[in-house]
């Protein structure tokens, strides 16, 4: 794929050329009824984003301004691909601040999942988790999803203090009834438990009874069958 023209306009043209009618029905399942979409396969969209990883951030903003899903998802993917590089603190902060400043243009859960771990979590590792607590207190479910998805980076690459900060966010959101939020709570806990099983057991002893069932099932997925059944049974007895 040519990278001679790296601009928001050129990227939108590339995406429009990749329209696939059979894909549009799949994409629409993730979108609001009135949200425009082209119908681009994710593999093709990621290829476009990867080819334009060096897109200036002012052009990334133009993609985020686009009404259709695919240009905005491409923008999130560009931020993610750039965050995978060796960056200095200023460069990483720039990506982080751009993500948060344009959070209103994130309209689907997969936009969050694509960029939040490396862009937000990658910057906040070793720093104060206050921004995550602020997001976790938001009335917007996708901002709360960012709060608990970003700490997935802490599981892979953070310190023990970072992991503890992620568990504190999970505790803040443990009783969230919105599936957009409580499913990633369960996913974070499942992975956190692989790194620190004792911390997961402490968390579940305190919070399992207040967690929505789908979140709890995800959280205990990797536990041995006896422990898994114990937490699920205890939670059921309190509901």
Can you describe what's shown?
InterPro entries: ARM-type_fold, DNA_alkylation. It comes from Egibacter rhizosphaerae. This is DNA alkylation repair protein. The chain has two domains: 1-123, no CATH class; 125-239, Leucine-rich Repeat Variant, CATH 1.25.10. 69% of the residues lie in helices and 0% in strands. It has helices spanning 8-17, 21-28, 42-51, 57-65, 69-83, 89-101, 109-124, 130-136, 141-149, 152-157, 160-172, 179-195, 197-207, 213-219, 225-237. The longest helix has 17 residues, at 179-195. It starts with 7 loop residues before the first helix and ends with a helix.
Give the % helix.
Answer: 55-70%
Count of structural domains: 2
Helix/strand order, N-terminal first: HHHHHHHHHHHHHHH
Number of strands: 0
Mean pLDDT: 95
Q: N- to C-terminal separation?
A: 55 Å
How large a portion of the residues is in β-strands, by DSSP E?
Answer: under 5%
Structure classification: mainly alpha
- The number of helices is 15
């Amino acid at each position: 794929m040519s990278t001679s023209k790296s601009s928001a306009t050129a990227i939108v043209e590339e995406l429009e050329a990749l329209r696939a009618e059979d894909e549009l029905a799949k994409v629409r399942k993730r979108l609001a009824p009135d949200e425009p979409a082209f119908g681009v396969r994710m593999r093709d969209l990621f290829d476009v984003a990867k080819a334009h990883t060096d897109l200036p951030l002012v052009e990334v903003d133009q993609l985020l301004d686009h009404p259709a899903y695919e240009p905005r998802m491409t923008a999130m993917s560009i931020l993610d691909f750039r965050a995978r590089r060796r960056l200095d603190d200023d460069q990483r902060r720039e990506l982080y601040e751009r993500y948060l400043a344009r959070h209103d243009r994130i309209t689907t859960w997969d936009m969050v999942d694509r960029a939040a771990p490396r862009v937000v979590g990658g910057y906040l590792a070793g720093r104060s988790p206050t921004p995550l607590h602020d997001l976790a207190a938001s009335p917007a479910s996708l901002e709360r999803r960012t709060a608990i998805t970003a700490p997935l980076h802490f599981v892979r690459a953070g310190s023990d203090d970072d992991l503890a900060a992620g568990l504190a966010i999970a505790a803040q959101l443990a009783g969230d009834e919105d599936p957009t939020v409580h499913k990633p709570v369960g996913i974070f806990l499942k992975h956190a438990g692989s790194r620190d099983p004792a911390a997961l057991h402490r968390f579940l002893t305190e919070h399992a009874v207040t967690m929505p069932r789908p979140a709890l099932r995800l959280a205990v997925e990797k536990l041995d069958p006896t422990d898994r059944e114990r937490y699920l049974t205890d939670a059921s007895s309190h509901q």
